Amino acid sequence: MTHALSVENLEKKYANGLLALKGISLAVEEGDFFALLGRNGAGKSTAIGIICGLVNKTAGSVRIFDVDIDEDFPRARSLLGVVPQEFNFSVFETPLQIVMNQAGYYGIPRRVAEERAERYLAQLDLWDKRNGVSRELSGGMKRRLMIARALMHEPRLLILDEPTAGVDIEIRRSMWEFLRRINEQGTSIILTTHYLEEAESLCRNIAIIEAGEVVENTSTRQLLSTLQREVYILDLEDPLTELPEFGRGRWRLTGPTTLEVDISREQGLNGVFRQLNANAIRVQSMRNKSNRLEQLFLDRVDRRGTE
Amino acid sequence: MSAESVRIAYFTIVTKEVTRFLRIWQQTLLPPVITTSLYFVIFGNLIGPRIGDMEGFRYIDFIVPGLILMAVITNSYANVSSSFFSAKFQRSIEEIQVSPTPEWVILLGYVTGGMARGLLVGVVVSVVAMLFSGLTVHSFPVMLSVILLTAMLFALGGFLNGLFARKFDDVSIVPTFILTPLTYLGGVFYSINLLPPFWQAVSHGNPILYMINGFRYGFLGISDIDLGLSYAIIIAFAVALFWINLRLLKTGYGIRT
Question: Can you give the pTM of this predicted structure?
Answer without folding.
Answer: 0.84
